[in-house]
What we know:
- This protein has 208 residues and is an all-alpha fold.
- It has eleven helices and no strands.
- Helix 6 (78-97) runs antiparallel to helix 7 (102-109).
- The structure holds fe (ii) ion (FE2).
- Fe (ii) ion binds next to loops.
Amino acid sequence: MNYEVRMTRLMSRIIDYRSPFTAMHSAGVAASAKKLAELAGMSREECLMMEIAGNLHDIGKLRASTYLYGGDDDTLNVEKMRYVRLHAGLGYEVVKEEGYPDRICEMILHHHENYDGTGYPDNLVGEEIPLGARILRVCDVFAALTSDRPYRKAFDSETAVELLIEEVRHFDMKVFLPFQSIVHDEVQAREKAKREAYSGVTTDKLVN
Ligand SMILES: [Fe+2]
C-alpha cells in the first residue's frame, strides 16, 4: 500500500482518539470518500488524494483540542462552537505547512461548506466548493450520524440517510445520489449476509 496513505491512516487514529466519541470517524470518512471517488471514475491518484483528505480532514481539531476537549462538560457551548468553526482553517494551515498538494489542502479547508452557501469558513456556494470538499461533506455528516455521541446513540444507516435527505440542500446532488446508492448496497449486502448466516439454522440451534 502507498506509504503516505498508510501514514495518514495512522494520523487519523490520533486525531480521532483525542475525543472518545470519534474513534475511527476519519477512517470511515476516508473509506467512503474513496469509494465515491472510485464510483465517479476518478483516477487512482485522485482516489488516493480523497482518502488522504478524509484521513486528515479534522486535523485542525488537534490544534484546537485544549478548547474542544478540555473541561469536564460535553456540551457544545458558544466558546467551543467558535473553535469548532476554526478547525477547518487550522487544518488547512497544518497540511499546507507540510507541503500537501493544494487539492488536498482545499478539500480540508472547505469540508464544512454547504452547497446552499450556509457552511463555513467562506460561505461558498454550489460548484464554488471544490468537488473533493463536497464529497467529504456528505461522508462526514453520515459518519457523524452513524456513531454514538454523548447526547444520543448512533442512528442506523437508513435513518441517517433519511436525516441527510431532510438537509439535502447542504449537499451536491451529483455526490449525494451515488452516496445514497452506496449506503443502500451496503445495507442490502448486510441483510443478505444475515439471511445466509441464518439459513438452515433450526429453532433448536438458535435456542441452544
Ligand atoms: Fe470537520
